Amino acid sequence: MSTRTVLTTGANGGLGLATVIEMAKRGHRSVGTVRSEAKAEEVLAATRAESVDVEIEILDVTDADAAAKVVESVKPDILVNNAGYMLYSAIEEVADDDARALLETMVIAPIRLARLCLPHMRDNGWGRIIQISSLSARASFPLMGWYQGAKHALEGVSDALRLEVAGDGIAVSLIEPGVFRSELSEEFVDLESKRGSRYEKAYAASQEMFGRMDRFMTEPEAVAKVIAKAAESKSPKARYPVGLDAQFQILTGPLTPTGLRDFALRKSSGL
Q: What does pLDDT average to in each consecutive run of 10 residues of the chain (271 residues)?
């Protein structure tokens, strides 16, 4: 594949960092975004340790003007929308402003960046938009409702976008990892902040269950290779599930009665 310019958001660590490194190793011009100069220095140190060249742009993806400037400067052929964060709380305990902030970061911002990239990609007759989704877009779990809602929304809008731009040589793909090692997995939930919640028992049970999944976690480098595969494919798939848990859900989800699944999740979560 010829050298392309790849813009990856949320490159400060975990999957974002693994992706900018993987793309650079494959010979692409790899550009990552972070939110601060301090994070930029950390990323550059990590990429130098891997003996690859990566460019860094400072960007808060929720800043529309800044996003437009970065896209105009970089002119990416491949956009990897990775930036995001976990909101691990019961629906009852999430304020409107917190829900709006999550949706702004994980739905509005990535679609805005995709929209900004379209003119350049269309002029070239080629483009790839890679949306980092989640197993949570296929199956819902308690205490993750708003996070899952954001991923469901991202997938719905991305499916429409895929149909709208395919005729211009632009492909839109969704990467759907299960649980993988990242800053999010290391700080799943702050139990101290949940003291006194009516869901305190459920938070603790879920944290314990999550800890037992450590041996099944996918490494971010493995997910990054799937991202690169989607970006470089001549005929990218619409969806790329990654990890044993994601594959298991796809196989068993349609066959499992909702009532049975609900019962199992409530019991394991202490609800």
A: 92 95 97 96 95 97 98 98 94 97 98 98 98 88 93 97 98 89 59 82 80 73 96 96 74 78 82 84
CA distance 156 to 138: 11
Give the integer Cα–Cα distance in Å for 144 and 65.
30
Q: pTM for the whole thing? A: 0.92
Domain spans, the chain: 5-269
Q: Which residue has the tokens 């490194």?
A: 21
- CA-CA distance, 232 to 19, in Å (whole number)? 13
Indicate the DSSP class of residue 181.
Answer: -
Query: CATH assignment of 5-269?
Result: 3.40.50.720
| Whole-Å CA distances, 266 to 25, 67, 199, 253, 270 | 44, 41, 12, 16, 6
Q: How many residues does the chain have?
A: 271
Strand partners, 56: 32
Instruction: Quote the pLDDT of residue 269.
Output: 80
Whole-number Å distance between alpha carbons of 269 and 106: 26
pLDDT number for residue 8 = 98
| C-alpha–C-alpha distance, residues 198 and 83, integer Å | 31
Q: CA end-to-end span of the chain, whole Å?
A: 51
